[in-house]
Amino acid sequence: MSELLIKNARIALTMDDARSELKGADILIRNGEIVDLGQGLITKGRTINAEGCVVTPGLVNTHHHLYQTLTRAVPGGQDALLFGWLQTLYPIWSRFGPEEMFTSAQVGLAELALSGCTMTSDHLYLFPNGSTLDDTIAAAAEVGLRFHPTRGAMSIGESDGGLPPDTLVEAEYAILEDSIRVVDRFHDPRPEAMVRVGLAPCSPFSVSRELMRDAALLARDKGVMLHTHLAENDEDIAYSLEKFGCRPGQYAEDLGWVGDDVWHAHCVKLDGAEIDLFARTRTGVAHCPCSNCRLGSGIAPVRAMRDAGVPVGLGVDGSASNDAGNLIGEARQAMLLQRVARGADAMSAREALEIATRGGAQVLGRGSECGQLRKGYRADIAIWDVTGVESAGSWDPAALLLAGPTRVRDLIVEGRDVIRDGQFANFDLAAAVAKQNRLAQKLAERS
Ligand SMILES: [Zn+2]
Predict the structure, then answer these.
(1) By the 8 A CB rule, do 268 and 232 touch?
(2) CA of 228 to the centre of ligand 1 (A)
(3) CA–CA distance from 57 to each of 158, 417, 429 (Å)?
(4) Rounded to the nearest whole angstrom, what is the distance from the C-alpha of residue 89 to the centroid of ligand 1?
(5) pLDDT score for 354
(6) d(CA 187, CA 223)
(7) Residue-wise pLDDT tens digits, 144-186
(8) 243 CA to middle of ligand 1, Å?
(9) Which residues surround ligand 1, an ion (CB under 5 A)?
(10) With bands split at pLDDT 50, 70 and 90, how would you rate the model's confidence at 193?
(11) Mapping DSSP to helix (H, G, I), strand (E, B) and coil, where does residue 269 land?
(12) Which residues touch 74 (CB under 8 Å, ≥6 apart)?
C-alpha cells in the first residue's frame, strides 16, 4: 500500500459538484486514489507540505498534436491562415520519423506537465518513415502523464483534390487495420487507466466520407472515443458547404460523429442549431483559444455552448500553431477571449479553471474518475505556490488565472510525483530539450 498526504494547503479548489473550496486542507491519497479530504489527516506514508499553495485538480488537455512541438514558429507559417499554414508545414513533417515523434512528444508533454496538466489527449494523424502511435505512448510513459492518444489519419492527398501531399496520406484499409492494432494493444478501459486510445481521422477535408463513417463504426465496436477537427474557420465552413452540400454539424451527425463518446476540436464556427445538436447529444468540444487567435480563426462561442450544456474542455492545440503548450495560460486565454467577445462578466476565472479541469475530464470520458479533488477520484493533483512575485498582493485563489503563477510547484499523477519542487522527479528534461534542439536544427538546415 502506498500512501501520500498533502498537508495544509492554503486552499483546495475541489471542482466537486458543490465547487467546494477548502481552506487549510489536507488530501490523503492511497494507491493512486483520493481517499480523504479535510483537516488534521495523518499518514504513515510521505507528506507534502502545501502551506502557501493553492491546490487544484490536475488540468486536462483535450487537443494537441505533440509531434508539432518540433516545429514551433516556423518561418513561412507564422502569419498564414489555416490552409496556407498547413501547406507550409506538410513538407517539413514528411521528414519526421520515430525519433522525431518520440522526442517531440516528450518535450510537449513535459511542457504541459510544468503548466499543471496531468492528463492529455494527442491527435497524431501522420505517420511518415515508420513512425507509429507507439512512439508517443512510450514518451508519455516516460514523462508520467495520463495519456489519451488518438490514432489520426489522412487519406485524401493532393492528387485526389485534398490538401496534404500524397506522401503523407495512407490507404484507408491500412488506417483501419492499424487503428484496430493500437486499440487492442494499448487501450485500457479501467478507471485507473493511464492510456486510453481514440480514433481520429484528421478532418473532414483530409479523409473520405467512408472513412469517417467506418471510424465511427469501429470506435463503437471497440468502445473507444472519436475525435476530429470541426468548423475551425470560415474556409472550413465554405469547404463543407461546397464539397458536402451541408454545414459541418450536419456532416458530423450524418456520419455518426455526435454523442458523448465524441469530441471535436475548435468548433469556432458552430451556429445555434449546431450548438443545440451538440448539447442534445452531449458531444464534446475542445476549445483552443490561443491557436484560434494565432491562426485568426475567430472566437468560439464558448459562453453559448456552456449555457446550452455542451461539454467543453481546453486544448493547447499543436505547438506549431500556438506555439506554446502552457495549459494554465490557455485557461487564462479562454477567459480573456470570451470577455473580448461578450464583456467582462462573460467568463470568470473560476469558470475557466473549471473548464480546464472538470470540463476536460468530462470531454475525455473521464468525468467520474478525474478532474475533481474528491473521494474516490484518481489522485491527479496540481500544487501551485502562491508565495512568489506573481501572486504577491492577492488573497483570492482566482488570482491563479488572473495573475499567476504559470508553473506548478508539484504535480501528482495517479498518486505519483511527476514534478517535485519545480523539477521533474523521474524524467531528464535537459536531455530531452537538447535532443529536440538537435533534431530541430537538422530540420531547419534542410528547409
Ligand atoms: Zn488541431
Answers:
(1) yes
(2) 8
(3) 44, 14, 23
(4) 13
(5) 98
(6) 10
(7) 999 999 999 999 999 998 888 999 999 999 999 999 999 999 9
(8) 21
(9) 317
(10) very high
(11) coil
(12) 88, 89, 92, 320, 447
Residue spans of the domains in the chain: they are 3-58+373-424, 59-363
Q: All 3 cell numbers of residue 403?
A: 495573475
pLDDT at 84: 83
State the pairing for strand pair 53-57/381-385.
antiparallel
CA dihedral 415, 421, 425, 428 (to 10 degrees): 140
Q: Residue 447 above 80 pLDDT?
A: no
Ligand 1 centroid – CA 287 distance (Å)? 10
Query: Model-level pTM greater than 0.90?
Result: yes
Distance (Å) from CA 409 to ligand 1 centroid? 29
Residue 1, pLDDT above cutoff 80: no
What homologous superfamily is domain 3-58+373-424 in, according to CATH? Urease, subunit C, domain 1 (2.30.40.10)
**Per-residue pLDDT tens digits for 52-68:** 999 999 999 999 999 99
- Where does 292-379 show beta strands of DSSP type E? 312-314
Give the helix, strand, coil percentages of the chain, each rounded to 5.
40, 20, 40
CA–CA gap between residue 137 and residue 158 (Å, rounded): 30
Q: How far is the CA of 319 from the centre of ligand 1 (A)?
A: 9
Distance CA 135, CA 254 (A): 33
CB of 300 within 8 A of CB of 267? yes
Distance 391 CA to ligand 1 centre (A): 32
CATH placement of domain 59-363: 3.20.20.140
Q: How many whole angstroms from 226 Cα to the centroid of ligand 1?
A: 14
